[in-house]
Structures are given as structure tokens and as C-alpha cells.
Amino acid sequence: MSWLVFALAFWIGAWALNTYLANSRWRGSLFVRVLVPMLFGVTLIVLWEGIVRGLGVSPVILPAPSTVAQTFAASTDILWEDFRQTVLKGALSGFAIGVLAAFVTAILIDRSAFLTQGLLPIGNFVAALPIVGIAPILVSWFGFDWQSKAAVVVVMVFFPVLVNTVQGLRETDAMQRDLMRTYAATYFDTLLKLRLPAALPFVFNGLKIATTLALIGAIVAEYFGSPTRGMGFRISTGVGSLSIDLVWAEIAVAAMAGTAFYGLVAWAEKRVTFWHPSHRRS
Questions:
Q1: Residue 116 and residue 108: Cα distance in Å, rounded?
Q2: Do 51 and 126 have their domain in common?
Q3: Which parts of the sequence belong to the ABC transmembrane type-1 domain (predicted)?
Q4: I want to staple 218 with a disulfide (CB 3.0 to 4.6 A). Which of 53, 71, 91, 272 is the partner?
Q5: Which segments of the chain have a pLDDT < 70?
Q6: List of residues 6+ apart from 253 with CB closer than 8 A
Q7: Same domain, 175 and 230
Q8: Using one digit for the tens of pLDDT, what is the confidence trace for 191-230?
Q9: Neighbours of 222 (CB within 10 A)
Q10: Are residues 177 and 113 in the same domain?
């Protein structure tokens, strides 16, 4: 019970400190913007530890964070192998192929009214298909290794990036396009110097959506067939063997990988679209 009391007291103190920092005159500083979410995360972990130990929750139901950390440290070889299989091979390769294919298709759609009317409705239909429906089919087509997981990721990231890119390419108004024509600019001159820069906020919005979809797709696809490695495979077998601490260690790796991937795209967006009003500080 002492653990539970300590966790609740820590939570109340951290909540008060976070509220003070969020409303202080330093709230716009980089230090506070990093400290507040970190303190919030630490508070959740301490509260989790206190509840599990204070109430005697079975590790089969919910292991304590300290137990998960010990399993993480003892299983780094397994976690690294699973990370390579799922993230580096499946998610990243599928992400790259899907984004490139979506971008090329968006340019073709922009050039063709027929594709605009015909392909986009089909794209919206395919995007609505559940992953649990298409993953087994793609696994049977491409085999049990990472290639089938990359194929699932391609399907998942293709249409969000395609729709956002097509919408972004339409953002320029008629006056801007007419001005480019008065300069005798070709289609590709207008695309590279006017329309693509204007579309970048939409493109990055699609990329940020795709970062989360890529990791989810690669992990879920492994539930339907994979070699004896991979994060989805390990989570599935870990639940079956009641190795819940290892399952949470895999979840932690997935969360860190997803956060880093999203953060990298968001960092690139700020560097490339620094001119956009959403990135201007008041």
C-alpha cells in the first residue's frame, strides 16, 4: 500500500508542477516544452508502478514497469532482431515504396482528368478496406518474410499520401498559375517552382499519417504469417505463452520507433516549410 500512496503523492505533486510550468512565463521556452511532456510520462510510469505493486496486480495481467525494464535489458538481442525485421525491413521499405508510388501517381492524376475522376474514388474505397482483410491475401502472395509486410505497408500508406498530395497540388489559385504562364513557364516549371512548394504542407501531413500507419501495418501483418522473428510475431507468441513482460518490451520498442519516425518527419517539415504560417511563432 505504501507504493500506492507514494505514487498518488508523486502524481499530485507532478500535476501541480506541470500546471505551474504550463502557465508560467517560461512556457514558450524549449526547456519547458520538453520538460512538461517528459514529467507527464514519468508520472504515468510511477503511477503504473505504484498501482501494480500497491494492489498486488498479477504480472500476467499487467507487469510493473520495473519488470518490463528488466526484461527489456535482458532481451536486447531479441528486440534488436525483431526491430530489424519489422521496422527496418518491413515498415521502412514499404513506406519508401508507397510514398514514391503515391507521389508519382499524384502527378499523373494532376495531368489527367480521367485519372482524377476514375482513380481517386477507387483509392478512397481501397483505403477503407480493413488491414485484417488484405494482410492475409498479401502474405499468401508475397510469402512469409518481410516482403509481404512491406506490401501491406505500401497499401496502407499509398492512399493517404496520394490524397494529400493531389489536394496540395490544387492549392495554387488561377492568378498565380496565369502569372507563371506569362513567364512562358512549362508544366514542370510551374510544378517545381510554384505548385509543389505550395503542396508541401499537405504532402507532409500525408507523410506524418503514413509514419504511424506503416508501423501498425507491418506489426499487424506479422500476425498472419512470418518467420520466427518480428515484433508482431513476438507479441502474438508472447501473449500465448503468458510472457507479458516481453510483450510490453516489444510495445515499448514500437512506441519509441514510431515516435522517432514521426519526429523525424515533423523535423523535416519544419525545415522545409518554415515559411508556412503554422510554423511562425507569435
A1: 9
A2: no
A3: 97-273
A4: 91
A5: 1, 26-31, 113-114, 116-118, 120, 275-282
A6: 79, 82, 83, 231
A7: yes
A8: 777 778 888 888 899 999 999 889 988 888 888 877 778 8
A9: 29
A10: yes
Residue 199 shares a structural domain with residue 164: yes
Identify the CA nearest to 46 among candidates 17, 82, 5. Answer: 5
| Secondary element (H or E) of residue 12 | helix 2-23
* Domain match, 113 and 220 both: yes
For residues 98 and 85, what is the distance between their CA atoms, to the nearest angstrom?
Answer: 18
Residue 191: which H helix or E strand, with range?
none
Separation CA 198–CA 168 (nearest Å): 7
C-alpha 123/C-alpha 134 separation (Å) is 14
- Interior/surface letters 99-110, b for 16+ CB within 10 angstroms, e for the rest: beebeebbbebb
Alpha carbon 138 to chain centroid, angstroms: 21
The grid coordinates listed for 231 are 515484433
Tell me, yes or no, whether 106 lies in a domain.
yes
**Range of the structural domain that residue 40 is part of:** 2-57
- Determine the residue type at 204: F
pLDDT digits (tens, 9 = 90+) for 86-110: 899 889 999 999 999 998 888 888 7
Residue 37 in any domain: the answer is yes
Q: Provide the phi-psi class of 60: left if phi over 0, else alpha when psi is between -120 and 50, else beta.
A: alpha
CA–CA gap between residue 124 and residue 120 (Å, rounded): 6
Q: Are residues 242 and 106 in the same domain?
A: yes
140 with 28, same domain: the answer is no
Residue carrying C-alpha cell 520498442: 253
| Whole-angstrom distance, CA of residue 108 vs CA of residue 126 | 19
Say whether both 139 and 272 belong to one domain. Answer: yes
